[in-house]
Amino acid sequence: MIPYLNKNTAFPDIHTALNEPNGLLAAGGDLSTSRLMNAYQQGIFPWFSPDEPILWWSPNPRTVFILSGYKTPKSVKQTLRKLPLKITINTDFDQVIHSCATPRYINDGTWITKDMIKAYSKLHQKGYAHSVEVWLEDELVGGIYGVALDTIFCAESMFSRISNGSKIALTCLVYYLKKHQFKLIDCQVLNPHLKMLGAVQIPRKQYIKQINEKNMQEDEKMWTPEQLDWQSLIL
Question: Is the CATH number 3.40.630.70 carried by domain 64-234?
């Protein structure tokens, strides 16, 4: 059994998370800004279906991109050279999260519920959640959003409306984060697509240690809405 949280209940120790399903820690609670940020700072994240209570997870091992070892996919470079794309930071978080919430196929559901959209939009307004946008002319064709800690970016979801759209968003995010001394992108749980892109698994203990490592070169201008010069970052 896992504990059920009320509004004022603290999270249990992450080492009490279940082995099966891997990382399930608790249920209940709320999606307030304070609760969510407290969760991320302990290596916990929410993930649940619309017909379920809020479920909180801290899997072991943890799936991440190690930024120092990230290699740009050839297809990303080819698409960037081929199409007149514009890449931006934090210029349309609302459209990115709604695009990520749109089911890929007609009969698919989505875990990004209206309550989740509302909660992460508040995180964005408070300066905790951020997005990368990929534009083709005036159309949003790819993007990614997540939550920034000191040296870790906790990626929540990405989407694509053109070939390599999400890969381009991820790659630009990687180089933007490296520029600002980040170490990891947290992807939570491994799947074949992430593995293909170069994600690896690390022990939860190592992930928590990285959470507690502070970025000594914080830039107050980081996450200011802007267009990225992706040519100088990637090519």
Answer: yes
